Amino acid sequence: MNELRDLYQEVILDHNHRPRNFRQVAPATHHAKGFNPLCGDQVEIWLNIQDGIIKDIGFTGKGCAISTASASLMTEALRGKSVKEALELFETVRTLATTDIPPMNAAGKLSVLAGVRQFPTRVKCATLPWHTLTAALKEQEKTISTEEE
Amino acid sequence: MSSFMVKREENESVQFPVTQIRKDFPILDTEIHGRKLVYLDNAATTQKPVAVLNALAWYYQHDNANVHRGVHTLSEQATRAFEAARETVRHFIGAGHAQEIIFVRSTTEAINLVAQSFARPRLGPGDEILITEMEHHSNIVPWQMIRDQTGATLRVVPINNKGELLMDVFEQMVSSRTRLVAITQVSNALGTLNPLREIIHKAKSHGATVLVDGAQAVAHLPVNVRDLDCDFYAFSGHKLYGPTGIGILYGRADLLESMPPWQGGGDMIRSVTFEHTEYNDIPYKFEAGTPDIAGAIGLAAAIHYLESLNLVQVHAHEQALLSYATEKLSGLPNLRIIGEAPRKSSLISFVVDGIHPHDIGTILDTQGIAIRTGHHCAMPIMNHYGVAATARASFALYNTMEEIDVLESGLLEVMKWFKK
User: Fold this and answer.
1) What is the DSSP string of B204-252?
2) Residues of B in contact with A40 (CB under 8 A)
């Protein structure tokens, strides 16, 4: 089935099987816990941010292939990026996971997550790590600056 | 008979007209992703037979009016059908009086009614409520609320790794401080069938009141509340081939009489002035507002349908499905069944090494197979087994051995996707 092939692309299966940066970051400057009450999946995102740059990022938790691969791909994509770029990439991922708009070039490897479009019940799996990331980043906004909103 | 020794030929020799029965459920002809629907999510909700669909349509086409109100003919017809449904339920669970049957929305609402109307006014610090580790959230959270509202203590009877209740621990925990035991008859996440008679007998010898969550039981085995000697029994219509939105609370008449109303409104009163309201008799005292009349009538139709098939035979058919599925799934590599109590209802929870239940569920769905994946509203059980979620296949009277073969090959397909 083609939709299934779109969902479980090689990249997804690979990142599920061998998740990258599957670890706590120490010391972590930012941290948040994400939870999908529908399935009980849990993900924790750990960040070390210096001068607005993500120096290190990792994740821990238990999740399905989609959420695990999404978290793994996210950590790969975000290391070395600025907080602003990270938030932009979150928007990119949200767009590609939930709309019919063709993935933007900016998405790069993350465009494999577009496979969830055809599986509405699985969109949350793909976006959970990203929502958790923004929760971790907003901690900073509250205490340090008000970059957005 | 040993559950693992059953051969498929023997199962099929059970005289149960499943091919004929399937014709009563139009939805079973549905195609999902171009494949024939294999519906194995019956513990979440069952499909509805034509008899129920017709009863709902008939009611709205011919009898629709509000109950217990008008003097006009339709109101009388609706009231008669609604009260006949109550009598059908009474007979179905062996209650002594129709006034002991309260129509509610769901099992959840039934348990909350008992919590708020029975437990809350009576309990205080020093009193204990006993539940078990295998309860559904709906038989946990209402008691946590009572604990917080009254200062009573909530205690949890543990299970072993097979998913059986630790009866010796239960016997140590139950005491004169135990005011209420709230326990499920069948675990929705494990399938375990609890030794209710023994539990109720023990609880009562200490003077405790017993509420049974029968949501997962009534569609699968004959239930008699007087035989069980429970004080309250709660179940839902929609897991019993009836409509959603209707549930039942059975309560012993003397207890119901002694309880204050839970919700106020129309139908639950005898007379109202701004100074004083006199409440109606049971069961109406607990049925404020216009009830789900069609739902009650639909539920009665479902019960008549089930009784026409004979629950003893239904149970035998489902146990044959369970044995066959247990044998098939046990043979699959890296698959672990969660819940292996010797006495189980017809459902199998399982996990597969390295494959998350959600991925199993999605891939099976593309083959037309509907199972449940997740924590099954029983997160404490998930914690007990150290998993975030399980996959669950649950069987009903219309399922077949062929469908279990389809499930088996579906799972092999899942495993292919995640081959390392």
Assistant:
1) HHTT-EEEEE-TTTTTTS---HHHHT-SEEEEESGGGTS-TT-EEEEE-
2) 374-375, 379, 382, 388-389
